[in-house]
Amino acid sequence: MVRSDPYPRSTPRRFECRSCLEVVVTDERVATCPECGGRMKNVSVPRE
Ligand SMILES: [Zn+2]
Asked: 7 CA to middle of ligand 1, Å?
């Protein structure tokens, strides 16, 4: 089997705010919520 890059640059990641549950989908790193400034949690769907 061929293993793909664990962090493909073209795949957006999904971040969820721990405070207001705002969800941001981006291929960039998101540390703080754009809505409330709270901490973001990476909730990208794990593959297999
Ligand atoms: Zn928030």
From this structure: 25
Percent above pLDDT 90 for the chain:
54
Residue 6 lies in a domain: no
Rounded Cα–Cα distance for residues 17 and 13 (Å): 13
What's the number of domains the chain is made of?
A: 1
Q: How many Å lie between the centroid of ligand 1 and the Cα of residue 40?
A: 8
- Euclidean distance between CA atoms 48 and 46, whole angstroms: 6
Distance 18 CA to ligand 1 centre (A): 7
Q: What's the predicted TM-score (pTM) here?
A: 0.68
